[in-house]
Amino acid sequence: MSTEIKILKQVLSNYSKPMTLNYPSAVSPDRKYSQIPAGLRGIPERDNDKCIGCRACYFVCSGRATSIYDSDAKRKVEIFLFRCTFCAHCQEACPEEAIKMTDKFEIAVAKREDPSARVVTELDLLKCKICGTPYASKKFVDRAYERLMEKIDQKVKETVSSDFKKVDGYCPDCRRANGVGFDTHTKKHVWLEGA
Amino acid sequence: MIDPIFTIVSLVLIIPIALFLGVIYQYFFRKLSARFQWRVGPMLRMYGDLKPLLGTTRLLQPLYDILKLFGKKTVVPEVSRKKLFVSSPYLSLLFAILAVLFIPFPGMPLLSEAPYSLIIASYLLIASILFTILGPVASGSPWAAIGARREVELFLVSELGFVLSVFSVAIARQTLVIWEISKGEQTLYLALLSVTAGALMLAAMMGKLHIKPFDMPEAEAEIVAGPYTEYSGKLLGTYYLTKVFMLYALVGLFISVFLPPLASSILWLPLYIVAALLILFLLTAVQVLNPRYRIKNAINWYLKVLAILAVVNFVIAVYIWLVL
Amino acid sequence: MKFSADPNIVDFVKKEIYADGLEYTPLRENRVAIKVKPEELDKLAELFMKKFEARLIHATAVDLEVQGFEVLNIYDFSKVKERLVVILKAKVDKDNPSFPSVAKVTWQATWAEREIKELLGLNPVGIPDPRHQFLPHEWPNAVESGLTGGQYKFESGSQTKEMYLPLKMPIEESYQSLIPIGPYHPGVIEGQIVYVKVEGEQVVAADIKTGFHHRGIMKLIERRGYNKGVFVAERVCGICSAAHGLTYVTCAENLYDAEVPDRAMYIRTLLVELNRMHSHLLWVGVVADVIGWKTGFMLTWGLRERVMDIIEAITGNRVNYGIWRMGGVSRDVSQELAAKARRTVDALKEECGKLLTLVAEHPVVKSRLIGVGPLTKAQAFDGGAVGPVARASNWKIDVRADNPPHAMYDPKVISWEVITDDNCDTYGRTLVRVKELLVSCGIVSQCLDYLAKTTGEVRIKPKTVPAGAEAVGLNEAPRGELAYYMRASEKDSNLPHAIRIRTPSYRNNAIIPLMLVGSNLADVPVVMGSTDQCLACTDRVEIIDEKTGSRKSLTWDMLVNLSRRLSKQ
Fold first, then answer.
1. Could you say which of B38, B306, C104, C339 would form a disulfide bridge with A19 (CB–CB 3.0 to 4.6 Å)?
2. Strand, helix or coil for residue C208
């Protein structure tokens, strides 16, 4: 009997403090969710200025939410939020720290085609000077050059820089095919070791 | 003195009143049980920012639920006996409404002045429940069959309690007219009888209204929706409507039989509502505190309660009748 | 902490357990793979189960392409030697793919061998229950073998007419009726059918059919590789996602010489225990709901929300945490957060203790649970019960104590105990879960204390997985023992050759019919719920091998057309 009385007490004390919220009204300006913690992994957001279109996020995405569409002169990097599992693996993989998880979590839209269901970044693609196929985004090549210059040994810096300029603008295939004509230095690694 | 015009007008009026009050009772029941369960429940007053989307209140939520069903497609299973399957909900509703006419409302004696109105009202309530069993049996679903079987067992024992409690009051008051019972003055012994017989009546109401722990006919975890498994659309809506009237009728009968003179005059209306809400509060408390019994346990429980309370009732009733 | 093999383990196994194997391979963490002849499998099963009281963890098979199949029986010897797991491997020809059934010896292997038979086309000789496991019972046999590998050609002319009857319990008397509970039923949230034959409300026979829930999870992991696979593994089950994540990384780390930082081990333990807390709260709520007590359901689920909030604050997600990585975890728990969570957990522990006692001691709840779904210790051993179901039958098995995963369960560092109960019924299972929840609270507090005081790295870069490595990962999920078996590719590849998952519900679901017979119809959902069944776990498999045979696959449009045509008829 005492258990029943305890339950009755508990049940009556429940009256004043309901645990549920009226969902949509809880997002209105006057009533905010109290439960959003600081580290919530919500919708990923991409910084368009930082993104270089390197495809690292595409390779690590387990849910295949990230896809790359290369059209004529544009590369579209896209996260389809309906497939996204908010695992933040792309955030870890991004070399430029362009992807960040936000604390927004409401992704419901009426149609799959709705633009708010996608996180899109568009980048300019470079076209090969010989064959005309787009091969990499401009930002990617620039950033690669920058990084190369940062890390490389002082002795070979100038040579590498001039070599880079020579092959810039050609797709990998054409670069291979026309390798002799570029007249690049082949012994960089030897110099690097100081031989 | 019976005024025919007033009676006819009140007979027409009582149906919307009963519907409205039944809905309010159900709202109260749902709201209270929600709050006891750490939930918000249907809204009394909508938050300002939701008003354009959802309206100002969810007070009539039980009614909306029923109206929604009336807008849905009705499916009649091929294996069912169609005439019985289709007509049962309507007959059930009809008898529930007829029962409502025999139960006085403050200021409106209705047909409760008729001789033997207590017996008529009891039988009408029984008939209404009977058709909530017959329709499902005709549906040909195994779930409905088991649900109906449980309903019959439960109905038999709870009906016994209902009859014993109501008629012990009739013995004490020496009348079978509800109106006269509800007008009668209270004495100490009659009040005592009201308490014991009222307790028995509450127990019977739990079975009739499927309040937990006696909701095994509708135990969704075991037998889907029990008797109502094959019902949909308008027919299901009709059954739900029956439940609304039944709730009003049982609460009204309780007040007029056990709590006179609350149902006798329009002046008592506020107290009538308070008493009704109190009864509902008791029912809600039982509902939220208990899990569902097995049918066997339920029958044992009823027989135990019946045996004790019915004897006490009759001793008091006969004492009032013979000695006082 | 570094995880490596005991160098003397092969000698120990040879000396103490079995000396006549063809080849012994030591694996990391006291696991030994023994190659044996296929004819010996059932004798060995008898020897292991009777003499050493070893537990069969899983029986499965791997397709080795042109070399044939390899049948694997994985046994747990943790009662003989700490962390010892023996994998018996028997190579079976593709021309005559039959091997003696272990299910003759111990009933618990039945489901596993039905699965092998059905999905790889092997033939376990003498299996007591040869019906289909995942395909419909009435599916003709010939088609099924045509699906597996391509060497059994399906010819429409010589089609086998043999069809298995859907059920082994025909209606004999007119007063009996057959009631299907499922596949879509309010008492069972996920898809499965339990057929119960009732006389009045008394259950006289019961049978279970699974296979409504295929998602091909194991194949998905095999195609994704080790790093991406963990996210898929987490999604085998939504409720015990932490357990799956931990078991996956434990198994994958056993493929190479792994090193995991201490702090990561504590975070892993913390998450798994929080996960266990919310899973057990969920279970108590579900049982309360099934016996019709909505209030009990709301109360426990209200508490569960608060556990979920802690998890959300720690990992950033509520259900699939996504922080498991090989060699650690992806996210640190800050000291302030740990201290704050510690306070919340303390308050929660008190409230859980109070509320759950109320639920467990409610007289009507008690009357609905005591004596319902009885399962003796002997039945549990033969049926292969795991987790709380086994412990409620007074059988003290807990992977955390016997064969711990790569998380901090060291009794020297964290004090905790294995809960058992001798009620052997649904009430016992309730008590075990309620007590375990409080034990979990204690473990969580200790982990949070450690995290609040110290700092350190949480992740060490994984090494390359050697070709052909094998590993077993075990963990105590909220529902019981969860086992992963992984085999790395023979080629130097980032993709695993095979992954097998044996979930706890796979075992506990199989013994449901045993517990059902003799109960009241009103108790059927309670008994089914008492194993905390998780059908998403049970039906996770798809081992149809596409490497060796060409298989016609349906395109989306064809499927749509097919369904439309069918629906028109």
1. B38
2. strand
